[in-house]
Automatic annotation (TrEMBL):
Name of the protein described by the UniProt record: NADPH-dependent 7-cyano-7-deazaguanine reductase
Function: Catalyzes the NADPH-dependent reduction of 7-cyano-7-deazaguanine (preQ0) to 7-aminomethyl-7-deazaguanine (preQ1).
Residue numbers annotated as active site: C34 (thioimide intermediate), D41 (proton donor)
InterPro entries xrefs: GTP-CH-I_C/QueF (IPR043133), NADPH_dep_7-cyano-7-deazaG_red (IPR050084), QueF (IPR029500), QueF_type1 (IPR016856)
A single GO BP: tRNA queuosine(34) biosynthetic process
Source species: Nitrosomonas cryotolerans ATCC 49181
């Protein structure tokens, strides 16, 4: 059965609602069309979110992202539209979407959009010391 692009985002219950944890997803093959020229625009999307009660189902995310392939959209608009749809589906504690559009005419465009659930605050960061890389073989 062939998959087809669609705008429906499916979710599932967060299996660990009691803890803040980050889900990181990289989408290196995002494509939409320039609304002025009709030429394809390519981007890598970087999605980071801290779920509340729901997590995104990855196949539905892939089909959702694919649905933009033949749509004209300015970089700023499509990034915020995708984020709005993810917020509506997930209602996450925190979410950030970075869209890194590839060079066109000598210009790179990076769009960063984020959202925090009202009242949610991250725990203080724990910075652990770093260790030099070690080899598992003897010299």
């Amino acid at each position: 059965m062939t998959s087809k692009p669609e705008k429906k985002l499916e979710v599932f219950a967060n299996p660990t609602q009691k803890r803040d944890y980050r889900i990181h997803i990289e989408i290196p093959e995002f494509t939409c069309l320039c609304p002025k020229t009709g030429q394809p625009d390519f981007a890598t999307l970087i999605l980071d979110y801290i779920p509340d009660k729901k997590c995104i189902e990855l196949k539905s995310l892939k089909l959702y992202i694919w649905s933009y392939r033949n749509e004209g959209a300015f970089h700023e608009a499509v990034t915020n539209l995708i984020l709005d749809d993810l917020i509506a589906a997930l209602k996450p504690r925190y979410i950030r979407l970075i869209a890194r559009f590839y060079v066109r005419g000598g210009l790179f465009t990076n769009i960063v959009a984020e959202h925090r659930k009202t009242g949610w605050k991250p725990l203080p960061a724990v910075l652990l010391e770093e260790f030099d890389e070690q080899s598992n073989t003897r010299k």
